[in-house]
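Can't paste images in this forum, so I'm doing it all in text. The chain is below; anyone willing to post the predicted structure tokens underneath?
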Amino acid sequence: MGQQITEVPNMKEGGEVIVPCPKCAAGTAHEVVASIAKSGEDADPDERGIQDYQIIRCKGCKTISFRNASSSPEEYIQVGEAQWETRIVEKLYPTRIESRKYSNDDARYLPPETDRIYEETLQALNNNSPVLAGIGLRALVETVCREKNASGKNLLEKIDDLATQHVLTPSGAAILKKIQTLGNADAHGVKPYSDAQLALGMDVVEHMLDVYILQKLVAAGFD
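Text version of the structure:
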């Protein structure tokens, strides 16, 4: 006997979910434009239980994306004393990380090569590609060193010079030196780094780019 699959259209149409927006780069309210709920036993073990496939639209910028929320009656999480809720696994397409990505107004102050590498590194982080993300972080540091004509015989010395130029704080320079090592290891040993390590590295790199953009704004504003 075939497996019993039930699909019900638009069960949550008009509802609202809070998810990161790929354009706003922050958690925003999204309207559920269309939804199909699928339940039953499926041949694919990743799709057993209840699957809710949704087209969603950001209520701020109106960007449309896709959300898949899956749950199983066998999986629960505790939310309070003697209180349990069904565990929801959420996937968003295109993938995105909340509170990352410069606005178009800010990004225009970055050199084109730097902006391109930043976008590709962000995409690697979004798509859970830690090896590529680590290499991208190193490439961003190297690119900024070239743009700022940082002096030094190697990348470590050039990072120190970025601190001298006040593009980096001393603590930021210390972290970027670890990224330099991270990039080498990724390229030769193909060793992925943890989400926490990559997030910290991206925080420092984005702060460096913030300073870069601020210097451009000051130069444009006081000409």
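Residues 5-93 form one domain. The chain has two domains: 5-93, 104-221.
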